[in-house]
Amino acid sequence: MGRFINSFEIDVPPVTADLYDIDPQPNDNYPLLNAHATILEEKIGGRARWYSQGSRHYIAVIGAEREYATIQSAEGAELEFAHETELDFSEWSDFKILQEALIEELKQDLEADGYWYDSTKNTFYREDRETQIEGYDIHPGVEVRISYHDRPLITLDPTLGAIGSRTLADYLNDDSWGIDRVSEELVGRTFIFQTSDRTSCTVTGVFENTTVSEVPPGRFDNETLDEIEDRHGREVADKVDPSEPTVKIRYGNSDWYPAAPSLLLFAPSEDRPDDISQRATFSPRERWEKVETFRELIGNINIGTIQTDISQSPVRDGLSAYGYPVLTFGDDPSTEMGIGRPNISFDGSPLTQEYWNPAKQGYLEEVGPRRTFDEDFNIAVLFPEGAEDDALRAYQQVREYVEDHLGIILSDPPGRVNYEDPHEVEDWQPSLDNIDAGFGYLPQHDEKVYHQLIEILDGKPLQSLTAVNLRSAQRSGHEDDVIANTAVGLGVKLGVVPFSIENQLDTDAYLGLSVTGRDRTVASGVVVSGTNNQILYQTEETNPTGRSTVTNQGLAKQILIRAVQGAVTNPRSGFEQLDSLTIHRNGYLGDEEIAGLREGVEYLKSNGYVTDSFEWVGVDVQHSPTYRIYDDDGMPDMGSYAQLDDETVLLLTTDAPQLDQGTPQPILCKIAVEEGDFDIYSVGRDAFYLSELNWGAPSKGIKDPLTVYLTRRMNRRLSHDRVSRLTYPPF
User: Fold this and answer.
1) Which end of the chain is more exposed for a tag (fewer CB within 10 A), N or C?
2) pLDDT tens digits for 99-143?
């Protein structure tokens, strides 16, 4: 039968919405607009949502069961029937009404079946816990998305929720924790707000000198103690101690809100205990069985008088697979590696998908990298107290691999410094001018120590290795693999290109653009050549945005201009001007960002950095969509894709044939803006091919295209307060 996805088509009849005028107009007071919608639903049935036509706000009602001409609403406003409008679901504002109505109906229906809804995660969880693991209650859940891709779809993806028994107040009151440790370890983590909504949120700070009975600085409202009883009832309000400190929370990407720590239960979404993560690793068959069970549970969804029909069969149209790229190794002459060609790293038999990633390492060792150079590099070895001999021993193994297989020479003896001794670091610092890169030997992975080493090296390339990983590899017989990946990672940071995808990509260059962070939000960009795959430009210093997920018009313009200027003037580029560019945005391109990119393109044209016929496309790249690709015969192949519409493609970039268990999660690419002739098939294929350039660990695949992979990691580093410069690709 072939491939399919976890989406089901929703057949919706033509829908006419009743629009109610609001007097007086509430401007953009969305809480008040939501209150009006709730009152209308109570009066006339169906589902209501605020709706705008031009500059005027209305409340739109679909599936109304009763008629009212005028209704008295919140804060003395009058809601008066104005006119009807037929909804066009291809318009986002119109589809949003249907989307929210379907979810609200599901919430009401599934509550009777013992489910509660987390709106931040778009997930329905079972009230009853399935089990308890390491002190966490485990609740089965299903993420539900209503989307529109030429027709409405409902997408279902099973998951597990883990909820702890301790509130944030418990941690704050614990003598072994307190405010300082909470701020260090729990700020930025996920909690469940124990109100009637039970929505997950992120704790972003603690007001040490402001209790929940006071208005916290920076807010003109108090959404903690004074409003808790009115909004959530006496039972919830009784859980709150008026003397406990106020904390800051965010829902998704929202602004921050004050909250009472007594109402926040720890619910880690990342860094969960391994046993919980293992339990949530569903095989394709198990995951699909859960989808089918939930699909039967929800049946069809009716919105007042509107009846919908949800298909019993998943979407199968638009699914196929990309062919694998041809990889080029060796400086001169070159050697090509491709599916079906003789595998020179093994026995000459035709290369198959199963051995695709392992063959990359073999080709690199057999033929050498695609781009290298004759140059000596001075390396500093950074180690903790008492580990100098082990660090130097590991460095020598890395050094030998680099010289044998990558064509560059590392210093011997190297510079060396005990990073735990501040006096030794201070005395060593003047010699940094003569150092090209650092090799960090850490007892175990530690983000704080890692950023300390970046700071010591002042942004110069750093490659680390942990004693824990090395010992584990020695016990399992994989020491050579760890040394090889460490050595290749160091070589790439010094400018080596292990292999490339030549003459197979559609545009001259690829710009990765990413915005991440919270209190220290940063934006960064990286440019990869579409011809020789060299990294032609990267952001080296922090670009504070003051926003959490999108940058402003000016900064988007600035990043584009600097990136293209840097790429064109880079002597390795081979370009006098760019004729075409693909921009991969980690997440979603905002309207201001698109406006900034358009301005940037005009500047680049007028200054000769791009041609007058310059074509460009901006692509949203979503790392963790709800969609999954399945195959009737088992695990879907890497390269499988589902074209959801003319602007959106779902693609599987992970090394699926090598996975022993679990269902691979794809990425989703959507054309957000284009100036030129682009098609979604080629946009998806290029993203897949660029995900093959995992130069830091050739024997492993990466999920994101290189453009997104690097900028995600760059932002992770540049958002740290100890990092002011980053001059190398952070594999």
Assistant:
1) N
2) 999 999 999 999 999 999 999 999 999 999 999 999 999 999 999
For 344, residues 6+ apart whose C-beta sits below 8 A from its C-beta are 335, 337, 362, 363, 366, 367
What is the per-residue pLDDT for 657? 47
Q: Any idea which residue has 């929505």 for tokens?
A: 199
CA separation for the pair 332, 372 (Å, rounded): 10
CA 228 to mean position of chain CA atoms: 33
Q: If you ran DSSP here, which 8-state letter would residue 350 be given?
A: B
> Which residue from 604, 602, 558 is spatially nearest to 578, judged by alpha carbons?
604
**What CA dihedral angle connects 438, 443, 445 and 448, to 10 degrees?**
-70
Residue 269 and residue 163: Cα distance in Å, rounded?
9
Residues 413, 447: contact at Cβ < 8 Å? no
619 alpha carbon, distance to own chain's centre: 14
Q: Which residue stretches of the chain have pLDDT < 50?
A: 518-519, 657, 659
Q: Dihedral sign, CA of 68, 70, 76, 77?
A: positive
Sorted by sequence, the CB contacts under 8 Å of residue 275 that are 6+ apart come out as: 133, 134
List of residues 6+ apart from 662 with CB closer than 8 A:
281, 282, 283
DSSP E strand boundaries for 212-254: 245-250
CA distance 490 to 725: 18
Residue 24: is the preceding peptide bond cis (ω within 30°)? Answer: yes
In Å, what is the CA distance from 149 to each residue of 8, 90, 92, 157, 412?
A: 11, 8, 11, 18, 59
Instruction: Specify the pTM.
Output: 0.93
Q: Buried b vs exposed e over 52-77: b needs ≥16 C-beta within 10 Å?
A: eeeeebbbbbbbbeeeeeebebeeeb
Q: Which residue has the tokens 């309000």?
A: 237
Contact assessment for residue 231 and residue 218, using Cβ atoms and an 8 Å cutoff: no
The pLDDT score that the predictor gives to residue 656 is 53
Query: CA-to-CA distance for 393 and 413, rounded, in angstroms?
Result: 12
Q: List, in order, residues 6 or more apart from 542 with CB less than 8 Å away.
A: 520, 522, 718, 719, 723, 724
Task: Count CB atoms within 10 A of the CB of residue 632.
Answer: 11
- Rounded Cα gap, residues 581 and 528, in angstroms: 10
Give the torsion through C-alpha atoms of 492, 496, 502, 508, to 10 deg: 70
Phi and psi at residue 309, to the nearest 5°: -130, 115
| pLDDT score, position 716 | 87
Please report the sign of the dihedral spanned by the C-alpha atoms of residue 672, residue 673, residue 677, residue 682. Answer: negative
Alpha helices in 120-217 (DSSP H): 168-173, 178-185
Phi, psi of 370, rounded to the nearest 5 degrees:
-70, -40
Q: Can you name the residues that pair with 61 across neighbouring β-strands?
A: 18, 48
